[in-house]
Design goal:
With 273 residues, this protein is an alpha/beta fold. The protein has one domain (23-50, 58-264). Helices cover 40% and strands 18% of the residues. The protein has a 5-stranded mixed beta sheet, sandwiched between helices. Helix 6 packs across helix 8. The chain is globular and about 55 Å long.
Length: 273
């Protein structure tokens, strides 16, 4: 449990170095009638190191301190070996992550951010907005290496930069004539299976005024303190068949996270689900 908590904290640090949310001003939403939802490019599904390295879990601080200098020596040896194994661990992790994705794609290409975008459309439509989902997935700016890596900073750093950036965008100039329309970009920061088989999901959204490209709101929500109990062992039952159990767990978690973000952005009333 201590090891799991330490790992969780570290992963949240990797995915959590982002700026505070921005709530739109009331007058910016007064004339809002329609929302164009854009699914952002997702990173590969993260898998726990226990799946793709035998050098896991690392010794806990308590174990290191308990044996004094000798423990420290063993810990330094562990770090040295782990760093030497990084290329191989990344390759093996990528293969396992892709195998999960292949199972998810058995009945058609399955993209987590499209699932979230469709959920956003459902909730906004129920609230009375005209909501549509763009027929494409928008690339995350700045991603140069799209492979799976142990620390995933090749993905996480650009995703954080996308969320933090509030400089005006010219991406939606073709929609700028509709003053009642806003753009809602929907992405994920954390999208990972944890060492205990739980799903960690952090959803992020940016609300954009296409008339001037300004980011007028941003919000994120995570289930880090209430991890969905999707228990997975090896390529276990959650991914059997067409991975329907995993998809259902993702849908439930995504529904809750998108709801929290939409409330923070002032697009839904608190208590609406």
């Amino acid at each position: 449990m201590k090891r799991l908590c330490a790992l969780l904290s570290l992963m949240l640090f990797w995915g959590g170095c982002v700026k505070p949310g921005i709530a739109p001003q009331e007058e910016q939403l007064t004339s809002l009638e329609g929302v164009r939802i854009v699914a952002m490019e997702p990173p590969p599904l993260g898998v726990p190191p226990v799946f793709h390295t035998t050098n896991w879990p690392p010794p806990s601080p308590v174990e290191v301190l308990a044996v004094g200098p000798i423990g420290l020596i063993f810990f330094l040896v562990y770090i040295h070996d782990f760093l030497n194994e990084l290329p191989e661990i990344s390759e093996q992790g990528g293969e396992i992550s892709q195998s999960f994705q292949d199972m998810l794609d058995q009945r058609g290409f399955w993209v987590p951010t499209i699932v979230l975008a469709n959920e956003v459309q459902k909730q906004l439509t129920e609230q009375g907005f005209m909501a549509t989902v763009a027929p494409y997935v928008k690339p995350i700016p700045g991603v140069e290496e799209r492979t799976y890596t142990v620390f995933m900073e090749n993905w996480l750093a650009p995703i954080r930069a996308w969320y933090n950036d509030y400089t005006p965008l010219a991406d939606y100039v073709d929609l700028s004539s509709d003053q009642s329309l806003k753009i809602l970009e929907v992405g994920v920061i954390n999208y990972e299976i944890m060492s205990d088989g739980g799903l960690l999901l952090q959803v992020a959204m940016k609300l954009i005024d296409p008339s001037n490209g300004h980011v007028i709101g941003r919000a994120r929500a995570s289930n880090a303190l209430n991890i969905t109990p999707t228990k997975i062992t090896s390529l276990g039952p959650a991914f059997s068949g067409d991975a329907s159990s995993f998809k259902e767990a993702f849908q439930r978690t995504g529904q809750d996270m998108t709801n929290k973000c939409l409330i923070k952005l002032g697009l839904l009333n608190a208590g609406h689900e």
